[in-house]
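note to self: dont lose this again. the chain is below, predicted strucutre after it. 128 aa total, dont forget to put it in the shared folder this time
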Amino acid sequence: MNKTKVDDMLIEMISPRIKEIEEKFSRGEGLDQEDINTLLLKSQYNHINHLDEKLDEVTSDVASLKGEFTNLKGEFKLLETSVNARFDLFEKNIELKISQAINVNMRWSIGMIALIVTVLKLADMFIK
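---
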């Protein structure tokens, strides 16, 4: 955890008083309201310190997740590119097959027309 100047100042301000209270308590003397308030202040400071550490962890985790999502986004872009390339190839393959089928049908049609014209021409020559 990165301590700020305020963190250091608070620790320095409270530490001597905490030591006095600990000594007073170890001698069996009772604590007055000011002592209790100082202990509560230390407790709250420790709690805030703990929360700051957790916040740093969460912030780090969020930054890590952002990186992971960025990587995931890149992977999805690659997947999208790959799928689009495959669909383009599939589409071109279908277009090629359709084109080939049309060419075969045109050849057969032209061949049949030529055959019919030839048969009719021959029939016309023989009938006269």
